[in-house]
Amino acid sequence: MTAFIKILGAAMLIIFSAFSIWVEPLLQHGNSYEDIFKYAERLESQGIQITLFQPSERIRGAAVLYMGKTVPVIRKIEMFKIFLQSGKRTVAILRKGEVKILDYADIIKEFNINGKTIIFVEG
């Protein structure tokens, strides 16, 4: 009987591990920030300067993970306006609703992650 329990336990461990490694990531893709930062990399490759506006630690960490570097952060609305109105090719990444998008910014892309909308805005 104890041999059966050991074999059953080992089988359960293998099944759980296989699920965690191969199946769960497929189910969690909609919760990933990967698409956001792959899009940001494409913009950077076109010479567009990217920044994060008032990001959460999770978004900052995802930027490092998926882009392989830290992305500049803007915390104050005044600096956000200056960044977008600088005359350079600039895009800011932020959560929709973080700031009221005024006349100086256009939403160019939206992503929905975990019920939150992340937007890309340009000046």
What does this structure look like?
This protein is 46% helix and 23% strand. The protein has 123 residues and is an alpha/beta fold. It folds into two domains: 30 residues; 91 residues, D-Maltodextrin-Binding Protein, domain 2, CATH 3.40.190. The longest helix has 26 residues.
Topology of this structure?
Layout: H1 2-27, H2 34-45, E1 49-53, H3 57-67, E2 73-74, H4 77-84, E3 90-95, E4 106-113, E5 116-122
Parallel strand pairs: 1-2, 1-3
Antiparallel strand pairs: 3-5, 4-5
Q: How big is the Rg? A: 20 Å
Strand content: 15-25%
Order of helices and strands: HHEHEHEEE
Strand order of the biggest β-sheet: 2-1-3-5-4
* Overall spatial form: elongated
Tell me the CATH topology of the largest domain. D-Maltodextrin-Binding Protein, domain 2
Q: Kindly state the number of beta strands.
A: 5
Q: Low-confidence parts lasting 5 or more residues at pLDDT below 50?
A: none
Number of domains: 2
Number of helices: 4
- What is the level-2 CATH architecture name of the largest domain? 3-Layer(aba) Sandwich
Q: In which range does the helix fraction lie? A: 40-55%
Mean pLDDT: 84
Question: Which structural class do the helices and strands define?
Answer: alpha/beta
Q: Could you tell me how far the N terminus lies from the C terminus, measured between alpha carbons in angstroms?
A: 70 Å
Largest sheet: 5 strands, mixed
CATH class of the largest domain: Alpha Beta
